[in-house]
Every structure is written in structure tokens, then in C-alpha cells.
Here is the input.
Amino acid sequence: MFNFDDANKKSKEAVDTALKTYSETAKGFQAIAAEAAEYSKKSFQDAVTHFETLAGAKSFEVAFELQTSYVKSYYENLVSETTKLGEMYADLAKSAYKPYEAPIAAAVAKATKSAPAATSAAA
Here is the structure.
């Protein structure tokens, strides 16, 4: 028989879990946005400094060396930042899934347990 008290309790737990997950996800996206903004600001400042230095170069060779050094440094920083953001996104996905892990596992176990019974009954 259907128990309204149990249904109400499960519904409240589901809403609480969803709100908690939403809050943690929003915080995660805020951290990612802050990191991306900080990187953009630093990258822009580095570019301005580089072009000021490059404008003062006295020869083509010096300018070429400055440009080569800047591009190498920019690439290394970009790869590092991209890796960091990727890890932040992965951590965000893991934390968003974590509250649902146990209920989903329980539902799968329950479905798996009842599936053989239904299959043998049909045969």
C-alpha cells in the first residue's frame, strides 16, 4: 500500500539534495569564472608589457628573441591554465553527481534484483 508519509519524506529529501547540489554547482561555476577572469587579466597585462618591451627593441634579432620568448611563455601558461580549468570542471561534475550516487545505486540494485524475478515469471 502507498504510504503518503514515506512519499513526503522521500520528496523532501530529493528537494533538499537538489538544492544543496544547485548551491555547490553555482559555487563551482563562480570559482571557474573567477579563475578565467583572473587568467584573462594577467594574460592581458603580460601582453601589454611584452608589446611595450617589443616596441623598444633596437634590432630585428632582439625583437625576434623577445617574440619567441613571449610566445613560448604564453603557450605554457595557456596549457597550464587550460589543464587547471579542466580539473575544476571535472571536480565540479564529480561533486554534482555525488549526492545522487547512493540513490541511483540503490535504484539500480533494486531494479536488477527484481528483473530476474520478472524474467522468470514471464517464462
